[in-house]
Amino acid sequence: MYSIFKRICDFIVASVALIVLFPFLFITAILIKLDSKGPIIFKQERLGKNGVPFKIWKFRSMCVGAEKQGSGVYSYKGDARVTKVGRIIRATSIDEIPQLVNILKGDMSIVGPRPVIEREVRLLEIRKECNVDSILPGITGLAQINGRDDIDDYEKVKYDFEYLSKRNLVLDSNEL
């Protein structure tokens, strides 16, 4: 019953957020287009519930073809591949807002473990051992609010497993 209610809540919140944020998203899209050539939306394959691949949507914050240059799909502080507008939208997490479309499509939830790329083998293995891959990934979750990229894979899965074990609508609302 929780999963059905959570899906309905996710759908409603994502729909309302997209409507309310539309003017802001439109301005962001214009700024991305003015700043650099290429598409406004960056789509990348990630692994979702039960390891099923899907295309995650983000505002493009790097130059076109960045994943084939330098450190590939991984970026670092001061990465020259990040555009001027990209620095701002990354620092404010605005680049994540298009993931509301992934929520509408049923690929993601608002709260859950972050979806990962297939190359993050160790993280995927640990998640599978702990059954964390059995739930929809989210835009935010316990691992994101407790360190994000500053914690190792084992600690991420510890937080993801804690969420899996305790998940409820009150915990979800506290993660927002």
Q: What this model shows, in words?
A:
The chain has 176 residues and is mainly α. The protein is 47% helix and 11% strand. It is built from seven helices and four strands, in the order αββααβαβααα. It has helices spanning 2-35, 84-91, 99-105, 121-129, 142-145, 153-166, 169-175, and strands spanning 41-47, 53-59, 109-111, 138-140. The strands form two sheets. Strands 1-2 form a two-stranded antiparallel ribbon. A two-stranded parallel sheet has the order 3-4. α4 (121-129) links the parallel β3 (109-111) and β4. α1 packs antiparallel against α3 and α4 packs parallel to α6 (153-166). The protein is globular. The two termini are 21 Å apart. The model has no long low-confidence stretch (mean pLDDT 89).
